[in-house]
Amino acid sequence: MQALANDVEIRGVYKRIGRNVILDGIDLEVKQGELLTLLGPSGCGKTSTLNVIAGFLDIDQGDVFIKGQRVTDVPAYKRGLGMVFQTYSLFPHMTVYENLDFGLSLRKVAKDEKKRRIQKALELVKMTGLENRYPRELSGGQRQRVAIARALVVQPTLLLLDEPLSNLDAKLRHELRAEIKRLQKEVGVTTIFVTHDQEEALSMSDRIVVMNKGKIEQVGTPTEIYAHPRTEFVFQFIGKSNQLEGTVKSRDSRMICVELAEGGQVLVEAENVMGSDRSCAVGDAVKLYIRPEKLTIQAAENEAPHYNAHAATIVQLNYLGSAWEIEVSMLGKRMQVLRPSIESGWTIGTEVMVGWNPSDMMIVKK
Ligand SMILES: Nc1ncnc2c1ncn2[C@@H]1O[C@H](COP(=O)(O)OP(=O)(O)O)[C@@H](O)[C@H]1O
Ligand SMILES: [Mg+2]
Q: Can you state the subunit structure given in the record (predicted)?
């Protein structure tokens, strides 16, 4: 017996189509009741992974387990899963009620029980009262709500959602994000959610799986993925960043000192080395990354912070409503700084001091 039950286990899955390796050794565990997100750029293998779990895609090597049962050779319809896709998958000639009834009738659920479950599912997605509408009489968001209700009404072992919010406008997308998160916890159904949108993944998930070219780059909670990316790919994919280059001048177990190509030195915490072997020795050429919101900015005449403080000049100021995006020229480069406010009087040409904490900078060998 395992301490923590896994509802899904994927072991060494490999899939090739023609000359393309689509899944290149996928190992993955989905815990009972969690909302796990597959995140990555278009074409990285998210849908293929979901299809392997659902049983829509045969694999060349490896095994798939659902609730401890090996299902590698079990057909899709026997896996008991609920799926929602990016494009509306409702039956257009059936009402909302009939769409939900369909799967229950196939499973020969008794009439009263069907009615009860359909009402409950519609309540869950806030669609009560719209039972008699046809899909064409619903908005995009409402259709996706019905699609989710239809997936849930059969009480699936797993809920699989493939970019269900991609076709919706920004406001609706935000709203439905929160809704899906809420109802997933309410129902408690183990869920795998696919998206290419990092913000969506960060805001919704218990854990995120970052994929790239048919491989898994990192698995972790949203904060682990954002604050402690293990690879350069994860760091760059998950948010905005500034980049510097240099050579390692000295290091101990806690800190790495880098001599920048443009002159000047910076300190980086030794824990923040990324890359597969996480090696970083004196003399190595390295790339350094820091997120815009991790840079502090202050008037040049103020006392400088202890580490990593550099003179900079404002070259661009963009007001974003909730924040200021300040572009500075510094260390011979342009860097983006994101702050909630700026000092009055700052303008293009103002001399400032930009600094950051060594724990916020990531480093990787070139
Ligand atoms: N039926 C297919 N035939 C050939 N190539 C495919 C097929 N399905 C997917 N692919 C390729 O497999 C890769 C992964 O696709 P997919 O899993 O759909 O990616 P994602 O969902 O992350 O965008 C892509 O390069 C895609 O072109
Ligand atoms: Mg896809």
A: The complex is composed of two ATP-binding proteins (PotA), two transmembrane proteins (PotB and PotC) and a solute-binding protein (PotD).
